[in-house]
Amino acid sequence: xxxxxxxxxxxxxxxxxxxxxxxxxxxxxxxxxxxxxxxxxxxxxxxxxxxxxxxxxxxxxxxxxxxxxxxxxxxxxxxxxxxxxxxxxxxxxxxxxxxxxxxxxxxxxxxxxxxxxxxxxxxxxxxxxxxxxxxxx
Length: 137
Prior knowledge:
The chain has helices spanning 2-16, 24-64, 74-103, 108-133. The protein is an all-alpha fold. The protein has one domain. α2 packs antiparallel against α3 (74-103) and α3 (74-103) packs antiparallel against α4 (108-133). The longest helix is centred in the first third of the chain and has 41 residues, at 24-64.
């Protein structure tokens, strides 16, 4: 019986730490860190996209004898769509991380609701990016 009470007490203490608000200063610091990480991640995704498009151009020029400025055709269109998708997902994930850090300034149900909204927005943004990539959006 005492063992069960101990586990109940431990569980209650653990749950008490859930959904507690961080201090405004900590939230501000975490949001600033998340923004900096987001800028790096988006810049990396954009650089990768530009690199992939340059590779597609080089491949098309060498394999098919296309000249600079000519349309690269279907492969380039797919590469551009995939690159745009990856940048959009990087932006959505960055926005999500920032939103989640902001949610840490709330407590209880407000924090849980905030995190749920952020998760839902991330999923919506990813679906939208997929639809644009696949030509349905």
